[in-house]
Amino acid sequence: MNSPLWRDDAPTYPTSPLPTDRRVDLAVVGAGFTGLIAALLAAREGLSVAVLEARTVGAGASGATTAKATVLQGTRLSTLAQTHSRELAADYLQANQAGLNWLRDFCREQGVSTQAATAVTFAATDSGIENVEAEHQTAQALGLPTVLHDSLPAPFPVHAAVELPGQLQLNPTHLLAALVRAVNLAGGTVTEHVRVTGVRADTDRVRLTTSLGPLTARQAVLATATPITDKRATTMELVPQRSYLCAFDPDPAVEIPEGMWISAESPTISLRTYTDGDRTRLLVGGQGHRTGDFRPTAEHVDTLTEWTMRHFPGARRTHAWSAQDYHPVGMVPHVETLHWGGGRVLFAGGYSKWGLAAAPAAALQLADLLQGRPPQLTFGSPSVSGTLKTTLSRQASAPVSEIRNLARTLTGSGGHRGDAPDDSTAEDNGAAVFREGIHPVGEAFVDGRTCRVSLVCPHMGGTLAWNGAEESWDCPLHGSRFTAGGRLLEGPAVKDLKRH
Ligand SMILES: Cc1cc2nc3c(=O)[nH]c(=O)nc-3n(C[C@H](O)[C@H](O)[C@H](O)COP(=O)(O)OP(=O)(O)OC[C@H]3O[C@@H](n4cnc5c(N)ncnc54)[C@H](O)[C@@H]3O)c2cc1C
Ligand code: FES
Questions:
Q1: Is residue 300 in contact with ligand 2, taking CB distance under 6 Å?
Q2: For residue 237, which of 132, 83, 352 has the smallest C-alpha distance?
Q3: pLDDT for residue 168 is more than 60
Q4: Cross-referenced PROSITE patterns, in alphabetical order (predicted)?
Q5: Crossing angle, helix 86-110 and helix 76-83, to 10 degrees?
Q6: How far apart are CA 113 and CA 65, in angstroms?
Q7: For residue 117, what are the β-bridge partners?
Q8: pLDDT tens digits, residue range 309-364?
Q9: Which residue among 233, 277, 286, 417 is the one 20 to 30 A from 150 at the CA level?
Q10: Is 462 in the pocket of ligand 2 (CB under 6 A)?
Q11: Which of 234, 242, 477, 481 gets mutated to test ligand 2 (max ligand atoms within 8 A of its CB)?
């Protein structure tokens, strides 16, 4: 588990050491789509730019994504219109369309291979029909040439479908490599294996503490999916969600429907194909859940595999992996100047698993903000009443543990003793949880070694849960994740777990 298909033949990324004088106009933290595109736009405007990546280029969601780039995003437009307003849905669409256009132009310019594809939102059951129709009506009202169908030919049930032609799909590692090359060509640097552990704004500079020593910049962009080091409103409003992807070698005798599909119902099923040479694979994804769920995570991959075997008999699974993206409580991505950063520290993220168009859109907004220009396009401002409505409806349909987690996301409280799973549940999945005094402690057995760590999250004290599928300790509050031995993987935390 957890080797994305894309890694099989990933191109090498032309990365470089940190700038020798350790002073730049702009430091970008995180080398996913947001960071690399923001860095490229700033470097093309003449700023000296350094991108600092804790792991490797694309190590977050960007290198593990399904990579469907579309403005028909499930039932998002109608949901935004119903939750907030038609005007906000129009702003959101316009910004995403600008992001998609930028992406298409960049890929064309740089020779990144893309395939034109039709995006399809389908009702897998009768209960999804109304949502599909609502999406079609909203999309049409906003000027998109969507087509509504009672059904479509597919080897799985389709009770209704709305489709939008002219969208695109790609291999994300090809896009990431082209972005790194373009940043270099524009005079910037991209450095891997440098973790930023502190960000402090003075009157005229931002001082970054990193695992390779200090670096100062006039401005900084935190393109870290959720803002690292932040313990305030932005982090609290971003709900971390992991989801799963499997790649299959399909039986050539079984027809695969063309297009990029996603179901209107939850849990979602998402499909696309990827053709490399004369080999076509089927990608099936979904089963999203809040990061740090105490339920065994491996069963999500089993569910996706069973669904695929049922509808595509003879398919052979070749890869299974998972990754996380952040879902804002108000449903609208964040692009903002963080108020603790003295006007010099910016953040963009929270794309709810639609970052292929939204990340370029956010980067275009960051480019304006960095130059002191008002952004030409924005995702729109969520209404307070809409945000409250989403929060309440999520609470009404969520299990109790989800409600507790959501409340904690919003209040930042967590780490109570009663939250950890009981020992037997954890042991079933390759780890054990117990108490030393009042402190929760986890013991995992990995590669013949016993690793014992504190289960108190160093970000804000959440209690970590064992993720058996990925052999990691995951925090349900804001999504920090750690290896079995306690080494920080991702999330807003900047420290490893304490060893016991
Ligand atoms: C399973 C899955 C499927 C998806 N499918 C689609 C899809 O089909 N279409 C679509 O539009 N979107 C999809 N998305 C969403 C999309 O992939 C993301 O929205 C997008 O990749 C986010 O990009 P990002 O650059 O903001 O974040 P990331 O790619 O997560 O990048 C953040 C980077 O910051 C680095 N970082 C973190 N902390 C530090 C630190 N302290 N110091 C230095 N670096 C740090 C991380 O290592 C990481 O590389 C999917 C997401 C998931 C999880
Ligand atoms: S408490 Fe915030 S990520 Fe764990």
A1: no
A2: 352
A3: yes
A4: RIESKE
A5: 150
A6: 16
A7: 167
A8: 999 999 999 999 999 999 999 999 999 999 999 999 999 999 999 999 999 999 99
A9: 286
A10: yes
A11: 477
